[in-house]
Write a structure and sequence with these properties.
mainly alpha, Arc Repressor Mutant, subunit A, two-stranded antiparallel ribbon, elongated
Length: about 80
């Protein structure tokens, strides 16, 4: 999650090329869908909750696994 890594909605929005309001809406919608709070927020700080850390870790693992699968697929296709 870009917000958890940047510790800022504004910085995450800039990194993603989105408005801060849109990032906030996306995070809120995800929290509603999952039924958990992913970020602790106040006017000065944003920090991931335990659930947010677990989601971030799981997302990273998913991306690595997907990357490995793409590399394996390319290797197999190169043999044809």
């Amino acid at each position: 999650m870009a917000v958890a890594q940047a510790r800022s909605f504004t910085a995450a929005a800039a990194r993603l090329g989105m408005s801060r309001a849109n990032v906030t809406k996306q995070i809120s919608a995800l929290e509603r869908q999952l039924g958990v709070q992913l970020l602790n927020r106040n006017t000065q700080h944003v920090a991931p909750t335990k659930a947010g850390l677990l989601l971030d870790k799981g997302t990273c693992e998913l991306c690595w696994n997907l990357g490995d699968a793409v590399i394996r697929r390319r290797s197999v296709l190169a043999c044809w």
